[in-house]
Amino acid sequence: LELTSSAHTGFAGNFALVLFTIGEGVVTLFAYLAKDWQLLKWINTAFVGLVIPYLYFMPESPLYLYSKRDFFRLEALLRRIATANKRDEADWYPVYQELRRNQSFILSNQKELTFLQKAHQIL
């Protein structure tokens, strides 16, 4: 969901929910065809084993990298995304630089609160 635009987040969430339901139906079909719980276990393990290598190659989301303040990897990922979308650097880089300046300004003005100050803010 983090890799979709805000206009398509609802569609992506609903699509994931529908695919989950279809997956449950497929597992039920496998259970009916297998007739043996150990065979069903190995079939399910094989499908999970096919998905796990994909997760290794899936990049972190830009939102996650921004929240962790990993700006070096964030910029590299944004360049890859812009290249894939056939966008010039002039389309996105000024906005990214403004975001970086605002982030450093926020961090410089932020002071560390003590536990009692945080508790007082909450109450």
TrEMBL record:
Superkingdom as given in the UniProt entry: Eukaryota
Protein name listed in UniProt: Uncharacterized protein
UniProt keyword annotation of RNA-binding present: no
SUPFAM superfamilies hit by this protein: MFS general substrate transporter
Keyword hit for Transmembrane helix: yes
Pfam families, per database record: Sugar_tr
Primary site of residence: membrane
Species this protein is from: Rotaria magnacalcarata
GO cellular component: membrane
GO MF entries: transmembrane transporter activity
Keywords in alphabetical order: Membrane, Transmembrane, Transmembrane helix
Transmembrane segments: 12-33, 39-57
Record localization: Membrane
